[in-house]
Amino acid sequence: MDININGFKKNVHKKIINLPGDKSIAHRSLIIGSISKGNYNIYNFPKSEDCITTLEIMKTLGVKAVYGNNNVISIISPGVENFKKDAGILNCNNSGTTVRLLLGLLCGANIKSTLIGDESLSKRPMKRVIEPLELMGGNIKSSEDKLPIETTNTSVLKDMKYFMSVASAQVKSALLIAALVASKNIVIKENLNTRDHTEIMMKYLGANIKVQGDIISLEKSILTSRDIYIPGDISSAAFLIGLCILSEKSSISIKEVLINSRRSKFIDILISMGANIEVENKLNKSGELVGDIRVTSSKLKAVEVLSYDTPNIIDEIPMLSVLAAFSQGTTVIRAVDELKVKESNRLNGIINNLSLCGIRAWYEKGDLFIEGKSGYINKDVTIETEKDHRIAMAFAVLSIRNLKTTRIKHWQCTNISFPENIKFFSKFLNIDYI
Ligand code: S3P
Q: Counting atoms of ligand 1 from 1, which one is nearest the CA of 315?
């Protein structure tokens, strides 16, 4: 299904928005939350397809889940020691976080399974997680380090010290989960800091985990079940922030959004570009920092994003690139190679689609450059999304600066992370399904 977004644009005044829970934390609330035997509630659980994928797999492993009102899920876990020992085929669909975090769990718990995924996930690199798990003593089978991957019941995990060579929270999390489940000690040194929701959730549930700079040490621990509140998804909020900034005279307030410092770099960068954004009412919920984000329409100037910040805005780069396209000057985002191995090759998606819209964007020696233009685009364009949710939504935001029609292909892919998007996007945009 495609959508057409045409010339007519709307301003939004003082709109108050509550968003579904953050996708990264939702995966962890199921996988880490259910390691110990017990009952707990998850509040503000999102209906995104990726999170439903993890939920279905956890149910196959033996976890019971009951949906209540207001996006609350009640979980009853038999404890990882009582999970099914031969889980059969586990379909991870499009979700990289599901497959990589689960590999840690299955390996640590010696559960036999075959992990599969859709066409996009089957092309994504898994060596980055298979290799360190094997070093730890895991017995994993795959051909060319891609899906399908078989886990066995013959892993003998041992204590490990590991230096990360790729900046990936998914890999770091898989190792921490494997060690926790197998009651081993692990020390991980990150090459660049990545999102730390696994460390925060393990600590919240009682793990003996310490973080000192880029070193994470986890000692044998027993977790306790606790209710988990999931803050609004900052990566979905990014699109609404983008719409508000690029519209002529709008203001919105997004309530109780995740503002963990490893995820809110996007906000800091926009503020440095001149965006009118304020973060207020900060509080801690289930170990994570939450706040209200107030945005008004703004004129932006170009920015340079340094390589150590890139992992912390990795999912927001499509949105940031679109904002850079309407900023004064040339923006550079350093060290963007990881974009090539996301749900699609996002580097190509950004450069090709911006070029289609008449905006100069290019890749040089690991960095992404975008030359900003002033005013509006004035041509009919068709955005090739390669079924990548973040490319689709970033270019839907771009349409607010197109006087003609912007067609977005395969819009249904946005259900991967933000199925409710139309409810919010249609406040700013005139959208027709075709
Ligand atoms: C995620 C980590 C990031 C991010 C992905 C979610 C996570 O991937 O892009 O959307 O929840 O740990 P990498 O670990 O591959 O950087």
A: 9
Q: What is the pLDDT of residues 23-77, one digit of tens each?
A: 999 999 999 999 999 999 999 999 999 999 999 999 999 999 999 999 999 999 9
Domain spans in the chain, listed from the N-terminal domain onward: 3-20+231-433, 23-219
Index of the ligand 1 atom closest to the CA of residue 171: 14
The reply to whether CATH 3.40.1080.10 applies to domain 3-20+231-433 is no
CA–CA gap between residue 319 and residue 315 (Å, rounded) = 8
Is residue 145 annotated as part of the catalytic site, yes or no?
A: no
Mutate to test the pocket of ligand 1, among 99, 165, 195 (most ligand atoms within 8 A of CB): 195
Residue 82: DSSP 8-state: G
Measured by CA distance, the residue closest to atom 16 of ligand 1 is 168
> Is the separation of the CB atoms in 336 and 347 below 8 Å?
yes
Tokens of 61: 């492993």
For residue 254, which phi and psi values (nearest 5 degrees)?
Answer: -105, 120
Catalytic residue among 196, 292, 315, 388: 315
Same fold for the domain at 3-20+231-433 and the one at 23-219? yes
Please name the residue whose Cα sits nearest to atom 11 of ligand 1.
24
- What CATH number was assigned to the domain covering residues 23-219? 3.65.10.10
Name the nearest CA neighbour of 264 among 287, 292, 228. 292
Q: Is 97 in the pocket of ligand 1 (CB under 6 A)?
A: yes
List, for residues 204-219, the tens digit of each pLDDT value. 999 999 999 999 999 9
pTM of this prediction exceeds 0.85? yes
